[in-house]
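I can't quite decide. Please look over this sequence plus structure tokens:

:::
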Amino acid sequence: VRLVESGGGLVQPGGSLTLSCAASGFASEHYALNWFRERPGQERDYVAMLTNSGITNYEASVRGRFTISRDAAKTTLFLQMTNLKPEDTGVYYCNAAEKGDVYWGQGTQVTVSS
């Protein structure tokens, strides 16, 4: 089972980034796929969710700025991030969860700074 995030980097406030998470080794199409982040000095927090039926949900501070989606093959998860703010800085993790099975990626760093 593997979840591999990519797409992080350094971006100025107001900028955009798109994160990807490639899933392999399990039937990801049956899982809810989520993004979490760990900001400096804070615990890992929920960011966004995409259920296997296509329902999305967002944490309040990112709603309207971030969009979660997946490709047609349902093996890659995306997080489109716009209007980024310094408080969005952190390590972003993708997560797959279904009936007690939980998998995590290794994370990708996002830094929003001028």
Remarks:
- The CA atoms of residues 3 and 23 lie 5 Å apart.
- The chain is about 0% helix and 55% strand.
- The radius of gyration is 13 Å.
- The chain has a mean pLDDT of 95.
